[in-house]
Model the fold of this input.
Amino acid sequence: MIKLILILFGLIFVIARLFRRSKNKFSANKFVRLAKNNPEKTDEIIDTLDFPYKSFEEKQVDINELESKIKSSVFANYQVLDMIPTTNALLLYVQGKYQEHDTTISGSVGDVTKTRYDLFAIKNLAEDNKVSIYGSMYETAFEKNVISVFLKELETIIHADQREVVLDLMDKMSNLLEK
Done:
């Protein structure tokens, strides 16, 4: 009887997690479609991303150049699904995949591949002479760590010149071919 109750709770937990992930993906995808169909709404969408992840003082970026650098980059756990530039910001729609030790669909404990869909905005804040990255708040400490890796990679791209980004991409591709 106790085993049945534990299996039932495990199943409920997994279903709730799947629902939360689907809702996360649907919400982010809905915002991207809205921004693409109504470009004038993009700034409003960017303003909903109110959790400040990183700021870089005494820095302004060229949004088109930044978009180009991100397009030619490879990230460890994230894939950029879409980018929408505005005059002073770049909206990123990304998918992150990571492994976490968690309850599987069968109720057993093991490594589970999880997927996150996130929106990030890289904003030029001209009045403060800085660039900031905004997003939505993470839900777990593990998600915080995964996002931190992505943000560190974004930071490198923001500070790098185009040549460094291309050389880094070539280096990563070379390492993949050697494996």
Q: What stands out?
A: DSSP finds five helices and five strands in the chain. The radius of gyration is 19 Å. The CA atoms of residues 94 and 101 lie 23 Å apart.
